[in-house]
Structures are given as structure tokens and as C-alpha cells.
Amino acid sequence: MTLGLPDHLVEPILSRALARASHWFALTCLAGALLSALALSLAYESGALWVAVLAVLAMAALLAVLSLRHTVLLTIAYLLVGAGGTYLYTTAVLGLPDVFPASNMFLVALPKLALIMVGGAGAGALTGVLWSTAGFVLAETVTVVAAAEAGVAYLPDGFTISAYLFLVAVLVLAGSARRPHRAAQSAIHRAVQADQSRLLRQDLDRRALELNQDTTLNELIALSRAHAGPLSENLAGSIRAALHRLRGTDWLTDADARSVSHPPGADAWLVSEVYRAIERCRDRGLVVDVTGDRSALGRLEPGVDHELGLAVQQCLINVILHAGIVSAEVDIGADDGTVSVMVMDAGRGFTESETGADRLGLRQAVRRRIERLGGSVTVLTRPDAGTSVLLSVPASTEPAPVTEPAPVTDPALVTDPVETDPAPVIEPVEIPATPAQQPSAPAIADGQAPR
Q: Which of 364, 321, 370, 363 is closest to 342 using CA atoms?
């Protein structure tokens, strides 16, 4: 029942389950005692039986409160009230003439069974046994006194003794079963922790391998292909950036940095990692022509944009290293839920199935990187026919936000609208022409009619 639960929850859950079962059994016994007392009171018209009915009702009410809120004070109160109620019930029942010859009858044992069941509410095995034993001793004590007052022989009944022994056995077994359960719980938790550690190690190995591919291997290959003499400024800067990244620990904790969104109003293309990857490859001498919908990159989450930029960079580095040409084309497209980037070159091409196991760029730094994002990689190539790599990653369906010009806030540049009267309508006036004078355009000044 408790397999798979944390250790700190096992004991209270078992105790609560035992307490609930004990309380329901006790309420059932009290209901039987109540019905028996009512039936006997109607048959024999005894006032003591009506008192017994009230005593049983008081026991049931206190037991209901105890089942809802278990405290030591309520438990002690239930034992005291239960002992008094059991005494009144047993005295009234055994006091009936020639009905019960001894005290070992099942009808007499009903309130005693309810009094013993308080032990199931214990917080532990030992506590439960102590409460149950206290209830058993009180029940038998008041029964002895009631039998003596009624003039009936006292005989221990097997019902009460069996219930007490059964409850004690259950409590002891429950307490002893918790140790193996804790051992099983510890084994389960250790297995879970070991599995989590394994996943963390795999993630660390993967990121270290990607970092090695993105920095060390690429820079070493670039150095091997460089001309003799001083390094170019671009290559030297690239090596310095790689060394700075390898010295730090950002590559271990950069997952949090990738979750930071771009500042509002920024150009989606200029702040994208794809743009930065292209610029880095341009610094190495590659001519890159960019086409398509550049603003679609604004629909990418920061982490997806980061990984896509590194994958595009590796594709462009492969062009530099293996294509045999110095130019490539990057085309950006998008649909409802996907952003795609295709890197194309007209180089020598290759056969992907024949790629050596030591060639990790396309396999590790591109394909696995994109597939972990839920995207896909399609490579179209053949020898002497160029290479096209299509990278598709999931993206938001919302377009990148378009920033509007900021409103004018300088009070000097803000003018209030001025109410003006409508311009007067000027009626045309015919001016007769003289022989020495030709018609000329009417002169209008200050809104007056021409003279």
C-alpha cells in the first residue's frame, strides 16, 4: 500500500489507516450495543437500559470526534467516558432477571470491543499497544465490578480477548514491516538518484563533446589551414574567444543564460545566433549570401535560437573545410510551427553514409543538436554536386513583435489644436479691361477681395 512513498510518509499513513479501520469497527460495535439496549428497554421497560442507551451514544459521539482530531487528551477522555459507559451498559444488561447467567456473552462484550479499538489510533506500534492495553484493562475491570453488583458470575469472554490479541498482533506486524519497507524505499530512492546521476553525466559528456567540436577542433583545423606567418586578426580573435570559453565554466551553466529573452524592440535578425554564426564565418573569409524571411528567427525561443546558431555555424565551417569553395548561401523560411534554415554550397559534395566515424561535425554538432530540440536535419548531397543541409526547428506561431515609433514626449514639440474659423469665401469680381490694359490675375491680400 505504501510502496513508492517517501520514508517520512510511510508511518503516518499506516497509522492513519489502522486508526480508521479500528474506529469503524468500534462504531459498528457501539451501533450493535445501542440497538440491543433499545430492544431490551422496550421489552423489559427498564430505566437503567435507557441510561445505558445514553451512555453508548456518548461513547459514539466522543469516538467520532476522536477519529477527526486525534489528540492525547481526547484519547484519555474516550477511555474514561468509555469505561463509564461500559459499566452502565453492563450493569443494566446483567441486571435483567434470569436473562444473562454470566458476563461472557457477546451482547455484553460489544462496548468492551469498542473500548479496546482506541489502540488503533496510536502514532506507532508501541503507542498503539499501550492504548489498546489500557482499554482492555479498563473494560475488564468495569465488567468485574458490574457483574459483582448484578450478582452474576464473571467469566472472561473470548470475543474481547481475541479482539485485543488480534489488534496487538496487527500493530506489532505493522511496526516490524516498516523496517523492510524503509529498506525498499531506500533502494528505490538510490536507484532513482543513480539514474538521475547517469543522465547528468550523459548531458555533461554531450555538452563537453559539443564544446570540443565548436572550439578546439574547429580552431585547430583553421590553424592547420592558415598560411605561414602571423595569424590574421580574425583567426586570432576567434582563437582568443575559444580559449576564453574553455577557461570559464559558462558552458556548464549557460542553460540559464539561454532562457533570457531578447530586449523588446530589438531586430530579430541582428540579435539572433544565426546572424552571429554567419558573421563569425565571414570573418574567416567565407562569402555568405543570406536570403529568405530573416524576421522569422524572432519566433524562436532563446535556447532554440542558441542551438540553431551553433548548428548553422558548423555547417558553414564544413563548407570552409571540405567544400573546396569560399561561398555559401543561407536561406531562411518558416511556416505555422516551424522555422527552417537551409545552408547550401556548390562544392565537391560527399556521401554521408561513407563519412568516417571521426567526423563528428555533422553527426554531433548538427544532427543530434537539432534532434534534441524536436527538429529535424535533412542532408542533400552527392559527390561533385554540392551540399544542402536543411535544419528545421519548432517555433512559436506568433510572429515577432513589431515595434512602433515612440510617441513624442517633448512638451515643446507638442501643440494643442487651435480652433479656427472657416476661411472666408471670396466671390470672384469681374474687372472690365481697358484697351490699354490687359487682364491680370487678381491680387488677394489678408483675405480681402481684390480691388
A: 370
